[in-house]
Amino acid sequence: MHPMLNIAIRAARSAGNLIVRYVDRVDRLNVTQKSYNEFVSEVDQQAEDVIVEVIRRAYPQHGILGEEGGTRQGDDYTWVIDPLDGTTNFLHGFPQFSVSIALKHRDRLSQAVVYDPLRNELFTATQGEGAQLNERRIRVSRHHHLRDALLGTGFPYRFVVDVDAYLAIFRDLIVSTAGVRRPGSAALDLAYVAAGRLDGFWEFGLKEWDMAAGSLLIQEAGGMVGDPEGGDRYLGRGDIVAGNPKIYEALIEIIRPHLARLTADRGAPAG
Ligand code: IPD
Ligand code: CA
Ligand code: CA
């Protein structure tokens, strides 16, 4: 195993253990509101501290981009960290959340870990070497038609301006697929696409730390990840479409007619 993946795993497990210790005590946590509909607890912050400590001990020269701690400049390597993805679920005792850690070398994703501490499921990938779930190789699903596909998504609950365009896409997809789920941890949703549990996924208005690890998992599992135009600027834009190759193409086809509205609603030009 690549030594940097090993460190990512150690960091993710440490954070996961910490998060699980708080599961029965969520009502006693200090919770603050970061922005509209966006909450952060002391667990998010402590989990990021634990991750950064493990990484810093091994690679003090590397940069860090963490959801809670922001950017810390370093050399050509940057760790992209979401210490607790699915905070709303966590705070409600809804058992679906994860730790997400990716490593970028310049602009290229090289290592990925998404860890579900409640199920003890560890999704890992190294660029060019495939993706695993608990050390067993995973592949994206083989469903080729939307009518057979189970999709994941996330609702645009913070970016209120996108809701109408989002709902138009949602409408088109609920009538043409086997089902749509909104589990509440984008990193884990992407890991499920990599493992073939979901056939595709789309969400708008995400942050780099929600997507970085999950997108490498999908690519290494034989799937496709892109922005809604079918380009590769999803990490910068925050809008992501993913799936096995056939479902990815089908999703882009469905989303494309709504794109103008989506970007117009946001008041910003596409890209
Ligand atoms: C959120 C989760 C959720 C997605 C949101 C994210 P957080 O991350 O991934 O599934 O719909 O857009 O912000 O805030 O719990 O780390
Ligand atoms: Ca997140
Ligand atoms: Ca988070």
Could you give a short description of this structure?
This protein is of the alpha+beta class and 271 residues long. It folds into 2 domains: 3-137, 2-Layer Sandwich (Fructose-1,6-Bisphosphatase, Chain A, domain 1); 146-265, D-Maltodextrin-Binding Protein, domain 2 (3-Layer(aba) Sandwich), CATH 3.40.190.
Please name the defining characteristics of this protein.
Fructose-1,6-Bisphosphatase, Chain A, domain 1; D-Maltodextrin-Binding Protein, domain 2; five-stranded mixed β-sheet; 15 strands; 27% strand
Provide an overview of this structure.
With 271 residues, the chain is of the alpha+beta class. It folds into 2 domains: 3-137, Fructose-1,6-Bisphosphatase, Chain A, domain 1; 146-265, D-Maltodextrin-Binding Protein, domain 2. It is built from 9 helices and 15 strands. The protein has helices at 3-21, 42-58, 87-92, 163-174, 186-194, 208-220, 234-237, 245-255, 259-265, and strands at residues 31-35, 38-41, 63-66, 70-72, 77-85, 98-105, 108-116, 121-126, 131-133, 136-138, 150-153, 179-181, 200-203, 224-226, 240-243. The chain has an 8-stranded mixed β-sheet with strand order 4-3-5-6-7-8-9-10, sandwiched between helices. Strand 8 (121-126) and strand 9 form a beta hairpin. Helix 1 packs antiparallel against helix 2 (42-58) and helix 5 (186-194) runs parallel beside helix 6 (208-220). The mean pLDDT is 93. Bound molecules: D-MYO-inositol-1-phosphate and calcium ion (2 copies).
